[in-house]
Amino acid sequence: MDKIIKTILAEWKGKNIPIIIPRDINLQDYLNLKINKIIVLNGFRRVGKTYILYGLANELLNFNSREEVIHINFEDERIPLKTEFLSSLLPNAEELFKQKIKYLFLDELHNIPNWSKWLRRIYDNNDIRIFVSGSSSKMSENEIPTELRGRFLEIRIFPLSFKEFLKFKKIDIDFKVLDYSEKERSLILKSLTEYLTFGGLPEVVLIDENKKFELSQSYYSTVIKRDIVERYKLKNEESLKALIKLLLDSKEYSISKSYNNLKSLGYEIGKSTLQKYISYIESSYFAFSLPIFSYKIKDQMQHPKKIYFIDNVFINSISTRFSNNFGRLYENIIAVELMRKRKECYYWKNMEKEEVDFVLKKDSKIEQLIQVCYDISEPDTKKREIRALLKASKDLKCKNLLLINQNYLGEEELEWFGIKRKVKFIPLWKWLLN
Q: In what order do the strands lie in the sheet with 287-290?
């Protein structure tokens, strides 16, 4: 055990940390907190958590020796999944480097048994700044073990925002200007098409176009195998894959409908198991669902949920139904962006099946209603989308109405059967850059 630890630490000491493209997440701010907290970076596999940690490590090494800053990736196959490895880590590091450790960076720590109890002990008994990354909701603020409550701050990491995407593509745009030149707008719109198609996972963004889908499919396989099947010890992998395909080909789901669809395809899976599978998929951050808006919990449980995926590339590379469907791709991008902004989101639907895509709630108040429609140039389409917005506005007593579309920017005062409201229209690219 000690030999493995010292080998890994020696490799870290000699490692060349890669040059990082800066993200919009500044971990330096968390170093200046008056009260030391464990900082947990949580999110889907391959969204860039490790590289964000590398970025901070690079900054720290300008003022500290390599021996004071340690990074360990617990997905290293040489590391035994035993608590004893953790117990021996710091004593071995201090023996090898002959000094106290100041900064500890730990990737995928939750793979080790009793990791939270060890982390609590290290936090309580040492003056160390600790940063932890994870690709499981087990490390989220909702599921964090009791012993760490009050001792950590969670930062949810998402794929690149559109602003970050432009930086990664080396497209120099001043985001503070109110208007853009024709050349800049052309660059932005071309980039938006790529972003909608291939998403914002950093490695996918940077790889050659003909390899993007191939790389995303390898991520997909890894998530199924390591983050779901192995983590939860599932025996029915084929049913899980079939369920994910159904979800990717759907805009909403219910347990009963999913159960019947899988049964018709020859998959024997109980409803309670199906519910568990969906919770496992969401725990890996591969997908998330939004309930219908209702003040009654019973209604939220009975109605179908809308399903969204962490990155558009999976819809385009795996789904057999929604590939190149810009309406679906617009809506998914917006859902992810609202999650990034930590908005409490629902959808609205009435008895006539009219629907508003996003209901934003803050505390007990409805903050905004957002409708998404790629093309509103057809009058009947525009009328249908606005009618649903106005009805939801009356039902939910909200006057902040927004319709995100392809290219129309403006504001109109509209009326439907005595309901009079102002509706703002904004192109997706402009909403993403605001």
A: 252-253, 305-309, 287-290
Domain boundaries, the chain: 2-156
The per-residue pLDDT for 202 is 97
Q: How far apart are CA 289 and CA 252, in angstroms?
A: 8
Question: What does the pLDDT look like over 151-178, one tens digit per residue?
Answer: 999 999 999 999 999 999 999 887 777 6
Structure tokens at 232: 């939860």
In this prediction the pTM is 0.93
* Half-sphere exposure (Cβ direction) of 411: Cα atoms closer than 13 Å: 5
197 CB contacts (<8 Å, ≥6 apart)? 312, 313, 316, 324, 329
Second CATH level (architecture) for the domain 2-156 = 3-Layer(aba) Sandwich (3.40)
Say which residue the tokens 């990354």 belong to: 133
| pLDDT digit string, tens, across residues 271-319 | 999 999 999 999 999 999 999 999 888 878 889 999 999 999 999 999 8
Q: C-alpha angle with apex 88: 50 to 95, nearest 5 degrees?
A: 95
**Per-residue confidence (pLDDT) for residue 322, from 0 to 100:** 62
Q: Which residues of 220-230 are buried (b: 16+ CB within 10 A; e: fewer)?
A: beebbebbbbe
Answer left, alpha or beta for residue 267, where phi above 0 means left and psi between -120 and 50 means alpha. Answer: beta
- The predicted structure's pLDDT at residue 323: 60
Beta pairing class for 252-253 and 287-290: unpaired
pLDDT of residue 62: 87
Using alpha carbons, select from 142, 168, 169 the residue that is nearest to residue 156: 142
Rounded mean pLDDT, 208-234: 95
Q: CA-based angle 227:232:238, to the nearest 5? A: 80
- List the end-to-end C-alpha distance of the chain, in Å, as a whole number: 51
Three-state DSSP class for 286?
Answer: coil
| Count of residues making up the chain | 434
Using DSSP's 3-state secondary structure scheme, residue 363 falls into coil
